[in-house]
Write a structure and sequence with these properties.
about 400 residues; alpha/beta; Urease, subunit C, domain 1; TIM Barrel; 2 domains; eight-stranded mixed β-sheet; 16 strands; about 35% helix; about 20% strand; binds N-(iminomethyl)-L-glutamic acid; binds fe (iii) ion; imidazolonepropionase activity; Metal-dep_hydrolase_composite; histidine metabolism; cytoplasm
């Protein structure tokens, strides 16, 4: 018989199920309880109605939320870019060129080093309440180095893996970007596809143009991968429109958008994933979250954790920025960091706490999720269950 665990005395429980509690999108139940069985949520509801369970855990009036879903990170790397950040904070501008520094270091690193760096970051994320992580290749940029990075991720058990051979054109292909595009869409894809679920392209001036991006995303689709796109990050470009055209699960960054881009997103199943750690760490203007939300676009929040443009692994930090600097409400930011991330990964089993969903949840040292932005920088994550197992 599988054992059941009942979490009781929850001041608030965010279910992300509008049918629960107050009827809002977060489906907040007050004075709640939650029962876990076999790694899944077996029951949610008011504490005075909780069914008997084998084990009890008294949450002491804390808030429970779904584990964060960080649907965009770049953790398959080696090396350090402290100096680049330091120079930027003294006035230098961020460009995609810094990626080359990380490519050099990553190619030199052994598999064990890549695996250890990935594991350390995933652990760091878990301690901050992130129970699902997507990560990408993109610092290998040859068939051999891209495939081994993705293999390392697959061997480490990471669930959401993205092939980003099209991060930049590496120096050895600088004179022949179309030749590199053919490699990414051909031999490199062949070697990488077995390890990945997603294909991504950095569609940007100085990276890949519209035609090159379309070629790679279409080839990825033909191999069974689903597209997601680094779109409209540094300048206005064709990325968002292309993401919608190819049916991407997500258009990420979305910093420079026209009304046509916003309309295209609103009329599609493509999620807009906003990465405020990136604008924070590059001193750039934040994306217009309100404009997207008011147009009816589904918005996700993620860290973009990478050594160049956004070296934070903290979803609570991103939530705090999204609320203070991007005009999102605390409810919207929490939804985007959980259910929004799940939607960006086309998952229905995570990002929510409803009967049958995965028992990935966080207890906050606070009575409500609003404290994530009300108390910025305070380590409020006090316990984390992943698949029903207490990890933090
Ligand atoms: O999402 N924009 C492209 N890629 C990363 C940055 C990578 C880097 O600077 O190393 C991003 O911001
Ligand atoms: Fe990124």
């Amino acid at each position: 018989m599988p054992r059941t665990l009942s979490l009781t005395n929850l001041a608030t429980l965010v279910t992300n199920d509008p049918a629960q509690g107050d009827g809002g999108p977060l489906g907040i139940i007050e004075n709640a309880a939650l029962v876990i069985e076999d790694g899944k949520v077996a029951w949610v509801g008011p504490g005075d109605k909780v069914p008997a369970a084998d084990e009890l855990y008294d949450a002491g009036g804390r808030a429970a939320i779904p584990g964060f879903v960080d649907s965009h990170s770049h953790l398959l790397y080696a090396g350090d870019r402290t100096q680049e950040f330091n120079a930027r904070m003294s006035g230098r501008v961020y460009t995609a060129g810094g990626i080359r520094t990380t490519v050099r270091a990553t190619r030199e690193a052994g598999d064990a080093q890549l695996a250890a760096t990935l594991k350390a970051h995933v652990r760091e994320m878990l301690a901050q309440g992130t129970t699902t992580v997507e990560t990408k290749s993109g610092y290998g940029l040859s068939p051999e180095h891209e495939a081994r990075a993705l293999r390392v991720a697959a061997e480490s058990g990471l669930e959401e893996i993205t092939y980003l051979g099209a991060h930049i054109v590496p120096p050895e292909w600088a004179e022949d970007p179309d030749g590199y595009t053919a490699l990414v869409a051909g031999e490199m894809l062949e070697e990488c596809a077995p390890y990945a679920r997603w294909v991504d392209v950095f569609c940007e001036e100085g990276a890949f143009d519209e035609d090159q991006s379309r070629t790679i995303l279409t080839a990825g689709k033909a191999k069974g991968l689903t597209p997601r796109v680094h779109a409209n990050q540094l300048t206005h470009g064709p990325g968002v429109q292309l993401a919608v055209e190819v049916g991407a699960a997500s258009a990420d960054h979305c910093t420079h958008l026209t009304d046509v881009d916003v309309d295209a997103l609103a009329n599609s199943a493509t999620v807009a994933t906003l990465l405020p750690g990136c604008e924070f760490s590059t001193r750039a203007v934040y994306p217009g979250a309100r404009r997207l939300l008011e147009a009816g676009v589904t918005v996700a929040l993620s860290t973009d954790c990478n050594p160049g443009s956004s070296y934070t692994s903290s979803m609570p930090f991103c939530i705090a920025i999204a609320v203070r600097e991007m005009g999102m409400t605390p409810d919207e930011a929490l939804w985007s960091a959980t259910a929004g991330g799940a939607q960006a990964l086309r998952r229905t089993d995570i990002g929510r706490l409803t009967v049958g969903s995965r028992a990935d949840l966080v207890l906050l040292d606070a009575p409500s999720h609003v404290h994530l932005s009300y108390r910025p920088g305070v380590p409020l994550v006090s316990a984390v269950w992943q698949r029903g197992v207490r990890e933090v």
